[in-house]
Amino acid sequence: MEQQGIEVPRGLSGVVVTDTTLGDVRGREGFYHYRQYSAVELAERRTFEDVWHLMFHGELPDRAARVEFTKLTAGLRHLPGPVREALPAVSRATAASGPLAGLRTALSLAGAAAGFRPVYDLTPGERREDALAACALVPTLLTALHRLAQGLDPVEPRDDLPYAANYLYMLTGEEPAPREARAVERYLISTVDHGFNASTFTGRVIASTGADVAACLTGAIGALSGPLHGGSPSRALDALDAIGTPDRTDAWVRDRVRSGERIMGFGHPVYRTEDPRSRMLKGIAQEFGGPLVDFATQVEERVEAVLAELKPGRELHINVEFYAGVVMELCGLPRSMFTPTFCAARVVGWSANILEQAGDSKIIRPSARYTGPVPPAPVPQLPSAPAA
């Protein structure tokens, strides 16, 4: 008799599938970390390059190592010739879907053009080199695809600008003000990694097959694009637009809940308290101040109150998307670039997970429970053709 599989919750919720040294999310505490450091504290005190170094090398750099790592990664931002030539066609083909869809094609092409080989065949150092190159190219690809879709020429990356400032520079063509650059950098750091979320797990599943880094990242990008995962920062801001004024909040929320719709920007599958990323981003938004921030704060308060009334015991608080949208709007990013910006951060976390998974030769291959018609059923003969 064939051995039956082990029953687990739908969506693998709460199921531990591997060990990791990269970080963890403590949902009941409202806390998450990268390696041994609080992710929020890292966002407040360190640079994006510092956190990238931490995820790839297991330690925060000292000043000399920071300079060396920043110079190394900045030099990898420039697009290879074949990729640059193909981008206008990629942009035209994906114009209706946006830069994240274009990135799936462009990054796959970049990996092929660079000769990425299966991680199964590479040394740890070679895997890291491929991952560094891919991470460095993602902001360049995203901003180039966005600008091409707007009828603008891509902006060449600047090696003298840090990761976040260079990203904004390539997006707008203008060097950003320090306040905006630092706000975006803090957002990027806060979203580098977040446990075994859907996109991270997707990347690790592909890595477990031994595929190349670009293939792993392309799959992770596909998972991130879904509105139930990374595709909702702009939708949370759209909700503010739909509400319009604070006095309309209660009726708007009740209407959505009664019709079975999700309130984007609220609730999280792991946290049972306020999302610590949102707490930090709310603080960044309040540093800017203004009507949008005041309105978002009022809406947050009323939505949580109405959800507590309609869904008692559910603990539905704001998640990272709510104030992420507000901060990115305040920093001048177009809404079509909200999720791509999330991707520009998370690619580092995905890559660190891919590198870790590549060190394990066991392929991830779960089972499914068949619930269809009882087999084996006789295969019917194809009826004879009617006589002419």
Give the radius of gyration. Answer: 23 Å
Mean pLDDT: 91
**Biggest sheet record:** 3 strands, antiparallel
- What spatial order of strands do you see in the largest sheet? 1-2-3
Pathway: Carbohydrate metabolism; tricarboxylic acid cycle
Protein name: Citrate synthase
GO molecular function: citrate synthase activity
Keywords: Transferase
Explain this structure to me?
This is Citrate synthase. The active site is at 268, 321. It holds the Pfam family Citrate_synt. This protein is an all-alpha fold and 388 residues long. It has two domains: 32-229 and 335-359, Citrate Synthase, domain 1 (Orthogonal Bundle), CATH 1.10.580; 233-331, Cytochrome P450-Terp, domain 2 (Cytochrome p450-Terp, domain 2, Orthogonal Bundle). 55% of the residues lie in helices and 3% in strands. The protein contains 16 helices and three strands. The chain has helices spanning 39-45, 48-57, 63-74, 81-93, 99-113, 124-149, 163-172, 178-190, 198-208, 213-224, 233-243, 249-258, 276-288, 291-310, 320-330, 338-358, and strands at residues 23-26, 31-34, 37-38. It has a three-stranded antiparallel β-sheet. Helix 8 runs antiparallel to helix 15 (320-330) and helix 9 packs parallel to helix 16 (338-358). The radius of gyration is 23 Å and the shape is globular. 45% of the residues are buried. The model has no long low-confidence stretch (mean pLDDT 91).
